[in-house]
TrEMBL record, chains A, B, C, D:
Residues 193-320 form the Alcohol dehydrogenase-like C-terminal domain. It comes from the Bacteria. It comes from Sphaerisporangium album. The keyword Oxidoreductase applies. InterPro entries: ADH-like_C (IPR013149), ADH-like_N (IPR013154), GroES-like_sf (IPR011032), NAD(P)-bd_dom_sf (IPR036291), Zn_alcohol_dh (IPR050129). SUPFAM superfamilies: GroES-like (SSF50129), NAD(P)-binding Rossmann-fold domains (SSF51735). Pfam families: ADH_N, ADH_zinc_N. GO terms for molecular function: oxidoreductase activity. Residues 26-153 form the Alcohol dehydrogenase-like N-terminal domain. The keyword Oxidoreductase applies. This is Alcohol dehydrogenase. Its cofactor is Zn(2+).
């Protein structure tokens, strides 16, 4: 029997349940879990802040495992990784948590906006535990036929990959949309996993300066260790002071590119103001509905000639590229330092609470 | 002596004053005015709603004239048009009202955002009548050395060009930023000169459908004559009804691209909602500070994966391209029908009031 | 029994064969053919100029039909069109000839270059007659589960759609890559179906001038009727004369954007020279290997700061947008005039020969 | 009196001549030279391979100096740097060698392609010694009013800046056009100053792998020290072997982005083949006319869906961003190691010959 953590509904205590070991159907893959991320979204799930969640679920959307079994070949052949290489038992892999993007709807085919495909489901979030081992906080994970699998290169420690977690592909998507030019001043709002990853990725776009606005201090310290040129603590500064500081650092103009990764509505108009005229502002942190914000369309948008880009979700490319980047620049950034604690399945409840309380930067569930 | 209309200050009655006929300095051009546009901005100027206006001014920023005299050659040669051809006395030309973009500041050279150059001045708006004939509501206009001059092709009636007026380059800039794809559904908010031009230009990008949201009826009728597939009157519909109508027309998705040209802050969050997920929204109509707007960053921006682009001002290219497009497609769109009245210099006050009251679609001052 | 034209191999006479009427499997659609295009590619197929063709095939890749029967619903529901609306018996539809794009390989998921997916097959080209009614020159066409179906709007005559044929989505792809700006001078090399469609689409991007370079005269006449501002006959001009003519028309600079649609290697370096410095050149007509071309990398590419874009194939979006654009602007362009002849199945051999000899602009097979 | 190296004509021995110390006119700046680059272009100049060079010239286009004197203020105020800060005597600065971009011609205003402005002149290349101290191989450099001045930040050693030299802004322009995505495999053809800079900048775009193709060994060793993941020596490999090696490293696909920096025409078709389908190829190294190249438009361009971008010259932004990037990432890349020798004015002839013979990676003239 296989143990897995089950979240039965909002607010209910997590349970560890036993599941049958599944035999992979054609095209499917069974992973023995090495570890799975605990992410802010898991806290949102537990608080019932996301719509359309089919409780009970097995949480854990970004995970790494060792291939334990492969299903038989299908008409399209044996299960393959994203590059087209056949998968092998024993390989250490991750996978795209998003499953079922249809490739046929208007958004997939005409709009080329696959993260808005209405058929997409997410491992650990919108797939029910009643349907199987479809989340990472479990001894094994069942990858249905069609799940996108990406091997981890030898030079990339799986703990490092999980330490960045889903923040990395999310940030990679946002920073890509930011279209940072060489030498740009980049402001990152938020010092959580997405913000830290964005601060790193901005350097890997050749930013001339990276300023992280956020808190608490433990996270700002991490930002500094990861190369931020300056940090601004929201607990000890006013928006006016932050605006003054960013302008001071940019010849009075403001940031060339700003990346929002906070989840706080008021951060959005502030971010518009922190950005220079004709700059670019990417909003990726407003993952749940936390209310409204007020801005001045003349001053904050039209006269500024500002570009604002909302950024939703990740696709295969973002995860594939995250793995490539983390492997290539592994020595420059010590991701594993971010891991404050590893939790067994039976300790998942505590992991969730520690993350919700921001007592840790990054927690892993390690079965 | 030369007569010109002078606006001495906010609210003060317009006056007609006499000026000496200037002798063009090296590189300068003297135009005999054929006509000049009366635009909503002139009403803003008269109400004192723009900052930094050096009253007294001669209004009139988009104008057409016949070259009356050319200044001597400079080190760079005789005065030339934007294409590099020498100008000749007798030619019918327009010119870019924006003057003095420095080509040397950070915005001009590094930011490539010339409409945010702090040195730019605008004929008829931010150049004082004390400095000369620097506005179009006058018998002659003095083009300083370096003003960008564009001849009107024979097939483009100067009245047609002025009928579109500054709305055309403004809309051309906005529609360019809209990156309309073939077959897209385009919503235009606003049926004034910018909105009508945007509705025309959307068709000249191959839009599959153009929906104009605005009023009053006389302007919506013009929109229909100019090819709009549907119009929605803001006087007789609620925002919810408009959203329902746009979704109904787009398989439930919303507009692919929306262009805002209203000047009303509340139009901005409405426009975000009228646009589909992963669509694009260009805000060009918030030309003066008319207050704030409230939106939901999660629903209206982040989860929508929406792109929002503020659009400020026009550059030489926008006016040059406007002339090219209006000349090429002149037979398809009857611009001169928009002209509700022509006013002599002595009637400029009435022109201003008619425009401010939206009693006319387009008024010209014809000295 | 159902009649279909079969091409058994390169050079062999076409045959009309009888097929069983298939019963649609779940998700499939059976079309009663209204008409199918005869395209230059069919002549290439007959001459054996394409690799990987699984003869025998039923030619005909762009077709229109009436839905005769629908297969049962699958797990994803009843068969739907690209917009998500359920298909109905009796609807007049077209479909994307490209079938089987996998949505899983590196090119589909990471490269976002679906026209380079190695799994794609094409109706009428790379699907064998041994597998069924998988081409348009037949009384019925069998659309396998997953084929992308697009209804024709009432305002779009199916003959008009076929008159443009596959040239339209191909040109739409190329013109999209051309990123034509308002008022640009566009040169189109080639006056066949792709070139004519490109000349039309350039006008629907607001080109300031469209110059078609090609032949023979019958095609250049069509180009003129479709709005080309000038035509240059390759039979009566030298490359030097054409270059001089294009420069003369553009203030000495050359075309802002050039679209190649010729199939002749030597046209490529000529097109580079016809394009202005810092312009853009799209190469879409080199569909088969017709040999090499020679150019000067310094003069023709590097110093010119030229952008050159090869363009391969079409995806769902290109066909969907073609239908939208042709329906919306149907009255402006009389596509059906291009149809020189309609051929019954038994006359398909003659159709092929007429097209190969360029005796017709466009031929249709109408069963 | 001021000493300067003068190149009197192609092939003639360099001379050291004495000049009067100029008094800066309004807006001008006099620099005391700290050092000036010796670049491959200087060898081209000496061999007479560039057209339009107004011999005699003072070579040296990328230079660093200390401000010795400032001209009086003009109507636009005191001389300022690119960011708008007033310049001060004693500051260590560089400047954009390109002077006189007009900001008024069609290319400057409509085409937005300032590196194709016909008025541009280049310090050390197309400005004559008869007009003054307009090149860097001199004790002092005279910066005319309007020359774009950029201070070097304290953390950027001026020798490091010159070690990268004009290769850095050139490469920065090319790599920007390359639009490298996170994790991309980037091939750089050429291991000279442009190629080495491109290899570094690719890493500062988050490339997943950088492969340098070139020679001789001393340069490939430098490439490896600067982080290249692999090098391919053109002296010991065939084009077929290089293609095989690049495909082997990319799952059979080829490079996502290739940057050409060789000057050899045959490298261009090879580079097209080294790049994957739907990839991007930037050609920046074909600076002089070295003859023609032959390619297959079907296989190498059209079917590949390849994008090829010629890249000419640098603008202010490229130099400004080069300074920002070199200062920010100075510790990661030891530029000064590239300097093989420093030469006094009297040794300039030897510097030129050492560079022409590729005996050195980088030489500086230090007066």
């Amino acid at each position: 029997m296989i143990s897995a953590v089950v979240m039965t509904g909002p607010g209910a205590p997590l349970e560890v349940r036993a599941f049958e070991r599944p035999e992979p159907e054609p095209g499917a893959v069974l992973l023995e879990t090495l570890g799975s991320e605990v992410c802010g979204t898991d806290a949102h799930l537990w608080k019932g802040q996301l719509a359309g969640v089919p409780y009970p679920i097995i949480p854990g959307h970004v995970s790494v495992g060792r291939i334990a079994a492969l299903g038989p070949a299908t008409a399209s052949g044996v299960p393959k990784d994203v590059s087209g290489a056949p998968l092998e038992v024993g390989q250490v892999v991750t996978f795209l948590d998003v499953y079922g993007t249809c490739g046929r709807c208007w958004y997939c085919t005409v709009g080329h906006a696959t993260t808005r495909c209405p058929s997409r489901k997410v491992y650990g979030i919108t797939l029910s535990a009643d349907e199987g081992l479809l989340g990472g906080w479990a001894e094994y994970i069942y990858l249905r036929p069609g799940v996108h699998v990406i091997p981890l290169p030898a030079e990339l420690d799986w703990r490092a990959f999980l330490a960045a977690g889903c923040g990395m592909p999310t940030a990679l998507h946002a920073v890509t949309l930011g279209e940072i030019a060489f030498g740009d001043t980049v402001v990152v709002q938020g010092a959580g996993p997405v913000g830290l990853s964005a601060a790193v990725l901005a350097q890997l776009r050749g930013a001339g300066s990276v300023i992280v606005v956020g808190g608490p201090e433990v996270r700002l310290d991490a930002a500094t260790r990861f190369g931020a040129d300056a940090v601004l603590d929201i607990a000890t500064t006013t928006p006016e002071e932050r605006l003054a500081a960013v302008r001071e650092a940019t010849g009075g103009r403001g940031a060339d590119v700003t990346i929002e990764a906070t989840g706080v509505p008021a951060a959005v108009p502030e971010g518009m103001r922190l950005t220079r005229d004709a700059g670019r502002y990417v909003v990726v942190g407003q993952y749940t509905d936390a209310g409204t914000a007020t801005f001045n369309p003349h001053l904050d948008l039209n006269q500024k000639h500002l570009e604002v880009r909302g950024c939703w979700g990740s696709d295969v490319g973002h995860v594939y590229r995250s793995v490539r980047v983390m492997a290539r620049y592994a020595r420059q950034f010590s991701w594993t330092d971010l891991i404050s604690g590893e939790y067994a399945l039976a300790e998942a409840q505590k992991a969730l609470e520690d993350v919700a309380a921001q007592r840790v930067v990054k927690a892993l569930v390690v079965p």
